[in-house]
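Async update (no meeting this week)

Hi team, since we skipped the sync, here's where things stand on the single-chain job. The sequence we agreed to prioritize is pasted below, unchanged from the tracker. I ran it this morning and attached the output directly underneath so nobody has to dig for it. Comments welcome in thread, and please keep replies under the output.
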Amino acid sequence: MPGDTLIVDDEDKIRNLLSRIIKLEGFTVKEAADLKSARKIVEKDLPDVILCDVKLPDGNGVEFVHEMKTRFPLTEMILLTAYGNIADGVQAMKNGAFDYITKGDDNEKIIPLLNRAVEKIRLQKRVIQLETRFHKDYGFENILGESNMIREVILLARKVSATDATVLLMGETGTGKEIFAQAIHQGSKRNQKPFVALNCSAINKELLESELFGHKEGSFTGASKEKKGLIEEAHTGTLFLDEIGEMHIDLQAKLLRVLEAKEFIKVGDTRATQVDVRIIAATNKNLLKEVEAGKFREDLYYRLNAFTIVLPPLRDRKSDIPLLANHFLKIFSEKTNPNVKSISSDFMDALKKHNWKGNIRELKNIIERSLIVTNSTELSFADLPLEFSIDDSKSNILSAFDLASVEKLHIQRVLNHTKHNKSETARLLNIGLSTLYRKMEEYNIQ
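Output:
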């Protein structure tokens, strides 16, 4: 808990007494007799807490609080005065002082005050670290890819993030629509405000209406108290509506009112609630076809379609697969199998030839699964699921009709599973141990 402290007082006895008291509690202490000396120490060492007298030879401590808090907002200031002065105390607190106490009589208060000030600083620094990490994790820097296709999409998203425009993200499942939504939010002026996400396909109509718009107490059975909806929770921030194409058409009218009038009505209420929220929607459906089929409101479609970004499927940006695969390898190897350091060429070739119907999400899952089953320090083709050997593309590494290749692959996988325990492998394969050795020799399995 103890931190660095600076005592600023022109009275040597007071300064030395405070210094002894504070040092006994484990704090590092520096001293200054005037503001000029104090400024030099602050600029050089930047203490956590400054204990400062109000009356000093070259200035006023109350004004010094304002100067320090403006330049070094994480440094806390505690003012000391020989005579309690309410006006000075009020102004000191307005200027950002942590506290204002009387010298001499309040020495027993110094240590608890210092501890509270240092705890506040620690929490503030933690918040900054978390915000920095959040921005790193969810900003545009977190979107991986070097292909022209993904670069163009990122450029579009960066441009629209600086505005308040409604955004519609379109793309197949697993292409990273929520990651883009978070990056757009982080790149906007709303980035210090809430980012609230809702998957419209995961909740039925009645529950979705309550979740989205909130409800009044007693509006339906079980509504024992008033509840804020997610739109209200996202006030001044961003609301991300994933799978917007699954939203019931009755609720679409209420969402349209939010977009057009910046207001909505809670379930069971008669008055409108004003809201300031940016909407980012996402879908893997063709909304225009949904409009033609009468499943999606045309007016809502055109409101959402103000700025559309189409995310490319992974099969159209296969040059990004090595970058993504190695990224997931680094993430999951630390948690799952730290011995694995690399990806073999045959493993990577298989990834590049795969169709990737599940896109980036599928790639992520494949890397994690392969790390679990491998018995090597390098991911190899044998660590991939069976569908990679019986793929529906014509450029397979193994033919679906090549029984020997499939058998070899299966034996290798069972060996990996048993960590090369031959007896256990033979038992699981339901063959004799001598047969296993013969097949390993035949297929050149090490």
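Quick observations from my side:
Residues 211 and 229 are 5 Å apart (CA to CA).
Residues 392-401 have pLDDT under 50 and may be disordered.
Reply here if anything looks off.
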